[in-house]
Amino acid sequence: MQLTKEQRTFIVEKYFQAKSFQQVIQSFQEHFPERQSPTKMTIRRNVTRYRTEGTSLNLNKGRSGRKRTGRSEENARIVQGALIENPQISARESGLDVTKLPFNRIITLDSKWHPYKTKQKTKNKNVYFQ
């Protein structure tokens, strides 16, 4: 279970006062008796996060998951340049080092182009039923 904002703040404040993991753990147990005390690693991570980012809150929103690198600005410039030269180019024909999915996303989302195929209408055949 994650620590609350109050508990994270308490850990960081007590660590800066005491500079001792054991004292922080003891103070935490006294102040939050219903909660399991944090480990040394939890205390260290909260203090490190506070020093580097200025807060010990959980800032994972927007940072979790696989990093998407296909739609970078550099790739967008390369693909848009290729489209200006030949607007009918496909991802495979382009010879660029961009795979199909990012290529198509760059075309539709960044360039606002919408690739399509022209379809021929079928001729009306006279079919006789008996």
Any key phrases for this structure?
single chain, 0% strand, 6 helices, mainly alpha
Written account of the structure:
52% of the residues lie in helices and 0% in strands. The protein has 130 residues and is mostly helical. The longest helix has 14 residues, at 5-18. The chain is elongated, with a radius of gyration of 29 Å.
Largest sheet: none
Beta-strand share of residues: under 5%
Mean pLDDT: 81
Elements, N to C (H/E): HHHHHH
Measure the end-to-end span: 75 Å
Q: Count the helices. How many?
A: 6
* Rg over C-alpha atoms, rounded to the nearest angstrom: 29 Å
The global form is elongated
Structural class: mainly alpha
- What's the total number of strands? 0
Name the helicity range. Answer: 40-55%
Low-confidence stretches: none
Strand and helix layout:
Blueprint (H helix, E strand, L loop, with lengths): L4 H14 L2 H11 L8 H14 L19 H13 L5 H4 L5 H11 L20
Summarize the structure.
Helix content is 52%, strand content 0%.
